[in-house]
């Protein structure tokens, strides 16, 4: 045993080290090494004999004079396979059209690159295979190889669903007070041996407490005191409809309550299918806002596409005064009465700043907070479910730690965002005059400015 030389597949350029008396752990390892050698040297071979105990191979160009051959056999009473005879020199011409490239071999070859960039497309893998290995692979082979490699890199999608409850229990054990729930379809007439996934809700205790004690009562994702997004909870559902929205909002209400501490929560949405009705049922007292971008998209779909009309819609929406809003609507009516009628049907407190509820202390009229969150998790959304949730949780953890460090190093008693705005606006103070109007009441005027 001490005198044996063993094949090590992790050795760089191990395919070049094949030689007489080299030992392999099994016949399967020998076959993989043989295939790898010929693919990387741009040659091909034929099995003259291929059995569990003895393998003899020749060059596929043997009839044209190539003398390459190899004979390996299994050592008695062992799984070990040893090369007994060989002539490793190919004198035939190389070829990029290698029939020995399989999806299994290619998956193993591209695995390192997919670990670095799991979103690499099939075309990129085909190109990299051509550059690195000088082999031509079909799109179907590359697609299947990518799928196999992704399963190794990210885990099996199906298997991760089997371990979902274990994962959520681990989250709850590590974060006591978290609400992590998964539900399945129930078919009492035809019960299945394994349940089928339906809904999942995920809210960490720290996220809940941070929102309740440090954020404004505004839900798209939450918004903290520094005007940064603050994700509260997220979920996975089989489809987006009224039932799934109602279930998710019910779980959310169980976590954060109905907003009685602040009065009510304000909820802004893109008016997704079934969402408005679900909000009215679960948070009946909460003021609602509609995303202005979504309103304008529907506005365009209704046939009102002129750039001038958009400016007037913005003027009517962003104005902080009723007079400014009415002026924008009057100009819109003069420009296009049909557009004015369409827009005037939407309740003003859902899209006009002047009419919005001010309890939540934010004047947002667009739901770009959700879009920012979607962009933040874009690289993990396509991963298997457990890895996806771990990726989102890790991103939240890193972001909050960076925010914490930024606040700790701030020299202000208020958040950095508003301290910068305060400094920016101090230059206008020289134009202001303050007159006391009563106990703790001041009149501030800015003259012509």
From TrEMBL:
It comes from the Eukaryota. Pfam families: DBD_Tnp_Mut (PF03108), MULE (PF10551). Residues 22-83 form the Transposase MuDR plant domain. Residues 220-298 form the MULE transposase domain. InterPro entries: MULE_transposase_dom, Transposase_MuDR. This is MULE transposase domain-containing protein.
């Amino acid at each position: 045993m001490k005198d044996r030389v063993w094949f090590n597949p992790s050795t760089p350029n191990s395919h070049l080290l094949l030689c007489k008396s080299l030992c392999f752990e099994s016949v399967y390892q020998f076959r993989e090494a043989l295939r790898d050698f010929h693919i990387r040297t741009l040659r091909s071979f034929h099995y003259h004999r291929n059995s569990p105990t003895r393998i003899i191979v020749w060059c596929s160009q043997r009839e044209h004079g190539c003398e390459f051959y190899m004979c390996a056999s299994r050592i008695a009473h062992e799984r070990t396979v040893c090369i007994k005879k060989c002539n490793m020199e190919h004198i035939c011409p190389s070829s990029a059209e290698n029939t020995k490239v399989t999806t299994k071999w290619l998956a193993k070859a591209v695995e390192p690159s997919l670990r670095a960039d799991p979103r690499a497309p099939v075309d990129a893998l085909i190109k990299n295979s051509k550059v690195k290995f000088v082999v031509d692979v079909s799109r179907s082979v590359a697609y299947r190889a990518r799928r196999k490699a992704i399963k190794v890199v990210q885990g099996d999608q199906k298997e991760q669903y089997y371990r979902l409850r274990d994962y959520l229990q681990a989250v709850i054990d590590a974060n006591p007070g978290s609400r992590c729930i998964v539900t399945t379809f129930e078919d009492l007439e035809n019960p299945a041996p394994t349940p089928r996934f339906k809904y999942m809700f995920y809210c960490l205790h720290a996220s809940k407490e941070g929102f309740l004690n440090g954020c404004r009562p505004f839900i798209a994702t939450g918004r903290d005191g520094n005007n940064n997004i603050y994700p509260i909870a997220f979920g996975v559902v089989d489809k987006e409809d009224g039932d799934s929205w109602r279930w998710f909002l019910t779980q959310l209400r169980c976590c954060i309550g109905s907003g009685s501490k602040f009065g009510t929560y304000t909820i802004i949405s893109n008016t997704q299918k079934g969402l408005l009705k679900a909000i009215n049922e679960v948070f009946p007292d909460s003021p609602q806002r509609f995303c202005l971008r979504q309103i304008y998209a529907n506005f365009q779909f209704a046939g009102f596409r002129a750039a001038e009309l958009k400016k007037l819609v913005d003027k009517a929406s962003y104005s902080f005064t009723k007079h400014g809003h009415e002026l924008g609507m009057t100009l819109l009516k003069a420009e296009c009465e049909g557009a004015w009628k369409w827009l005037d049907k939407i309740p003003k407190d859902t899209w006009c700043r002047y009419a919005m509820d001010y309890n939540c202390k934010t004047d947002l009229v667009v739901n770009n907070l959700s879009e920012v969150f979607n962009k933040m998790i874009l690289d993990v959304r396509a991963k298997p479910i457990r890895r996806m949730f771990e990726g989102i949780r890790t991103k939240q953890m890193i972001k909050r730690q960076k925010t914490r460090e930024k606040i700790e190093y701030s020299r202000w008693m208020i958040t950095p965002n508003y301290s910068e705005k305060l400094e920016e606006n101090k230059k206008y103070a020289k134009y202001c005059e303050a007159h006391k109007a009563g106990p703790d009441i001041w009149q501030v005027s800015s003259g012509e400015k």
